[in-house]
Amino acid sequence: MTSNSISHGRTIRKLVACGKMKVIVNVDKEKNVIEDVVLKLPKAGICHCNISATVELTNDMISLGHLKRAIKGLRGHTCTACTSLRYKQKHKEVEVTEKYGESQKSCPDAIARALLEVQEELDKKETKK
Fold this sequence. Notes:
The protein has helices at 48-63, 67-74, 80-90, 107-128; strands at 7-16, 19-28, 33-40. The protein is of the alpha+beta class. The chain has one domain (7-128). α1 packs antiparallel against α2 and α2 packs antiparallel against α4 (107-128).
């Protein structure tokens, strides 16, 4: 991000096995493109180090103009802890909250879904112009 650009962030809440994750997707308002992603995790889960590295690599890909490739690489991965949480939600052992929704397949999958959601919003705005 250059010092002259104007950006805003969109916070998307996702439920993962390690807790309630906030995915903040920052958008350059002038260029109407995703700039980067920031994660807020409620606690240092088992894979906190791995997800931090994943976010860094994702931001590198975004800065190089490879957003779609980053999303493709992040989507669909499954985590056994998240799978267990999804099972518990399905069988009403854990509540599905409106704010966070159903558990995601994994942290990378949650990041990909948040990026895709924001990109689709940007594409709709661009289409309306």
